[in-house]
Amino acid sequence: MRTHYSSEVNESLVDKEIIVCGWVNKVRDHGGVIFIDLRDIKGLLQVVVNPDNKQFFKIAESVRNEYIISIVGKPRLRPAGSENLKLDSGKVEVVVNEMTILSKAETPPFQFDDNVNEDIRLKYRVHDLKSEKMQKNIIIRNDITNLIRNYLSSNNFLEIETPILTKATPEGARDYLVPSRINKGMFYALPQSPQLFKQMLMMAGYEKYFQIAKCFRDEDLRADRQPEFTQLDIEMSFINQKDIIDLIEKLFFEIFYKVLNIKISLPIKQISYAESMNRFGSDRPDLRIPFEIKTISEIVKDCGFNVFSEPASKPGHKVSALCIPSKANLSRKDIDEYTEYAISKGSQGLAYIKCNNTKDLKDGLQSPILKFIDIKVIGNILEYVGASDGDIIFFSAGTSNLANEVLGGLREKIAHEKNLVTGDWEFVWVTDFPMFERDLETKKLKCLHHPFTMPIYKNIDDIEKNPESILSHSYDLVLNGTELGGGSIRINDKDIQNEIFKALDLDQNEINEKFGFFTNALKFGCPPHGGIAFGLDRIIMLITKSLSIRDVIAFPKTQTASCFLTSAPSIIDKNQIKDLGIKIDKKNNDNEKDT
Questions:
Q1: What does the pLDDT read at residue 589?
Q2: Same domain, 403 and 352
Q3: What is the reported pTM?
Q4: Where are the alpha helices (DSSP H) in 226-344?
Q5: pLDDT tens digit string along 235-289?
């Protein structure tokens, strides 16, 4: 139905008859001559309808925004001074010979340049997807996905699909469950990731696997989470950690160069988990922030100020300091706000020293804690954190986790609120995560990554005797303070795998029930292997500088896991429920469930 897209219409086509079609973006009547901005997937094109073409001028008078039309006409050069060089077609306009209305449209619910509530955008998502912003995002998503496929295929990877209806296995979040009609009372689970299947593919000899996989997690949502999301999943055999990191760094070099025309610096910096937590209070550090946390436990352990000296001397505790530069220009109101923030994280308060004149330790500093600490210790603190006139030093004392969370959060909060973030793109690998951590509620061990990660150990007995000291062969790639994805070298020995399961307090019956199919496959030989997985939506969100992954997904869910477009989830017909052999519990007036 067309000979050209809008962006293809240029000076080379002047006086040649063409056919274009698309949506009416805007209609303008200029003294009897009607101008129509025609929009298609490639951009905009200006068409002109003259009044002497009476039949089609009358049609042009009837068209409105979002009508879909077809145009037959000839391009001509725009008058000097009226070109629009922002458009590929901006030097020409098409004079209409024929016009056909292909589809009429009601008045759209909003204009694309309106400041519209996101709920309205999601309710009228089809209209929202017509906007330049959304079309650009979806096209970039397509380009990146194709680039990934081409890159991995050129490196001899096989794209292999894994099941969507599978078995529920504990992977950290709640499963979405699907009742079976044929096997009544039984359920499938939608995969949180293809983890076990891709490892079994390695056992089967498919040495290089990848998949653009749909994954599902029933968890509380936020701007960069969705109940269903897309994951770039990669697994390789007969490799080590360096091989995987090299592969991924070159992939991201390709993505940034071909999509953004930016050459990222390789190799990407690597820091350990322990270093990341100590310096930045986070395992996903934003290296664009030009200040970091300092541990001052050694300086203050004998200072006599119990708030500092006690945690400084206690295992698993520490005292940390964060020096905020003078250009932040923090007010008394800011300090009060940041104190409330620290309290919300579990701290008793937020100690600080305001450095008016660092050369005068007696009268040049302001702080409620100065009277409790020897002036020599204060001087040592200022020297160690590199304080200058006008800076403010914040302190956090307590468990290492608390100190990291308080000052790590403050570091990011202050940097963003006070425009102290520098640079555009900062990658970093975080490696050597602890194998286990304690669940705050159950006090049981759980894996920081997952139970199939290879532990770092000298003796297998160490896993049982001192599990919290065990690190793992694991690595996360972080960009601008956002975790893009993570991976690990996997366990390929059944005895080590069983030790990890035992450390997680799983007995043999539970292991057989939850992972029997996997451990049985492991018995028949498994090559050394490892892999990594990335949230594709999150990558595209960052590259397009969108505020939410909902802006890079065609039909997303809200933060309540609802779809305003289709009204999903919805009530199911009683006959369908009966076929499944299940009963729906309904809440009564006392807000209790029927049994």
A1: 38
A2: yes
A3: 0.91
A4: 241-260, 273-280, 297-300, 306-312, 332-344
A5: 999 999 999 999 999 999 999 999 999 999 999 999 999 999 999 999 999 999 9
Q: Do 298 and 241 reside in the same domain of the chain?
A: no
pLDDT mean over 464-481: 94
Q: Which residues constitute the domain of residue 36?
A: 6-103
Distances (CA, A) of 412 to 290, 352, 408: 11, 17, 7
**How does DSSP classify residue 422?**
-
- 361 neighbors 378 (Cβ within 8 angstroms): yes
CA distances, 329 to each of 316, 342, 390, 420 (Å): 34, 19, 8, 11
Please state, in angstroms and rounded to a whole number, the distance separating the CA atoms of residues 591 and 134: 41
Buried b (16+ CB within 10 A) or exposed e, 228-262: ebbbbbbbbbebebeebbebbbebbbbbbeeeeee
Where residue 333 falls among pLDDT bands split at 50, 70, 90? very high
Do the beta carbons of residue 151 and residue 251 sit within 8 Å?
yes
| Residues 93 and 126 occupy one common structural domain | no
The reported pLDDT for the residue numbered 163 is: 96
Residue 135 CA to residue 554 CA, distance in Å, equals 9
Buried/exposed 432-454: b ≥16 CB within 10 Å, e otherwise: bbbbbeeeeeeeebbbbbbbbbb
Place of tokens 């050459």: 263
Q: Are residues 207 and 229 in the same domain?
A: yes
Share of residues in the chain with pLDDT > 90 (%): 84
Q: Sort strands 317-324 and 293-295 into parallel, antiparallel or unpaired.
A: antiparallel
For the chain, give the mean pLDDT. 93
3-class state of residue 191 by DSSP: coil
Q: Is 477 helix (H, G, I), strand (E, B) or coil?
A: strand
Predicted local distance difference test score (pLDDT) of residue 42: 95
**CA-to-CA distance for 253 and 245, rounded, in angstroms?**
12
Q: Which amino acid is at 137?
A: N
Residue from 163, 253, 178 nearest 214 by CA: 163
CA neighbor of 299 nearest in space, from 385, 416, 193, 418: 385
Instruction: Produce one character per residue of 311-334: b if its CB has 16 or more CB atoms within 10 Å, e if not.
Output: bbeeeebbbbbbbbbeebebeeeb
Residue 388 has pLDDT above 50, yes or no: yes
Residues 287 and 400 in one domain: yes
